[in-house]
Amino acid sequence: MSAETNTAIREVLREHARLPVDVDTLSDDADLFTAGMTSHASVNLMLALEDAFDIEFPDRMLTRSVFESIGAITGAIDEIAVQNGQAA
Amino acid sequence: MSVVVDAERELLDEIRRIAGEVAAPVADEVDRDSRFPIEALDALRSAGALSAAVPDALGGPGASLEAIARCCYELARGCSSTAMVFAMHQIQVMTIARHLDGSPWYEGYLRDLHREQRLIASATSEVGTGGDMARSIAAVTPSEAGELEFEKQAPTVSYGAHADDLLTTLRRAPDAESGDQVLVLTRSDQMTLEPAGAWDTLGMRGTCSPGFVVRGKFGPEQVLQVPFSDVMNQSIVPLSHILWSHVWLGIATEAFERARAFVRASARQKPGEPVPAARRLSEVMAELALLRGEVSQALADFIAFDTDPGRERLMTMASVLRFNNLKLAASEQTPRVCGGALEAIGILGYKNDTPYSVGRHLRDALSARLMVANERLLATDATLLAIAKEA
To answer: Which chain B residues are within 8 Å of A18, Cβ to Cβ?
Structure first.
């Protein structure tokens, strides 16, 4: 994954995940729900990610585990990019 | 395979007998006195039905979800409270069986449950969480000598005073976030339930579900290690909605059958003359068919979703919406059918002492919209609809 993708995800998180901690203090595998993200905020995060990356998460990806860390989100976005025939 | 099918047929025959011969005759008394249907529970124990869902690998009968759901429906034809107690207990047993993850303590527990026909209640709601099962205040707390303890203010514990064991949601540790939960099973000799309030309600009076202050002391091996969010999405929520809705379908069917009996009796009195109630009954029949269709389809969907490796499909938002839809539709439709049956029968249905009385069924059915408030499910659905694509 590119550094830009990581930066962009962190930017969306900062705007929409409503975390009580600074996003920069979280590692890529830190659990966002443990860090304080609510279910409601996670839905807003998904919507914002779809908008920011111009993608659509299929229903099978709309699970807690896909959005539980920056690493997991990156993996999902990469997978969609591959399916859409783009270089991730 | 055929051995299993035969065993399930035997179970269902026995459940039908208990519903008709043991539960139904005292259903009015259970309702009037708001008392626990003890004779039906004794009969279910004698039939070995409390361990129906214990897997055969642990020495149990390993009955299928379809068979358990059918039992809930049959029992509800006789007594709603008996059926709801049975359904809730089976939800706890299936949840443990599906998530024990090789734990020797929990495997031993299910063997004991099968041998001793133990009854499990649950304390998942809590004073101060606003009905949100995904949050807890009470926590697993270190006690002396490596033991653990908790104290929880539970606003409703169905059949709490009559259960052997209790499945409780708690925060993982005193410093854990409110959503970081685990399930803990405590046996009767490891806990005390201090009553907090009475259970004098509109319906479902025999479930005897007052509040309790629950205090437990237990070993670390009694903490179910799987994350509670997985347990909730893969088992507790969908299984609850499926088994509850089978109970509701049983209540609605019984109300409909009483209306049908009334129409037949009216037709026999004046052969050849039109029976006005029959027209209303036709409408109720269509409403009941809708309810049955949704309840059956949701059961089939769960079985299909459950075959997914890692139960991933049950973790999707589409799955949450699917089983919320079942709960919303069935809990609205059941009182509609009971109310329609009442209208078809008229005054003999409104009176509490006729063969056509359906007041109890209507009152029991009204609990459906409240046990997990529909307003809460609608709020959840409203959020998820913004992002989910199917369903």
So the answer is: none
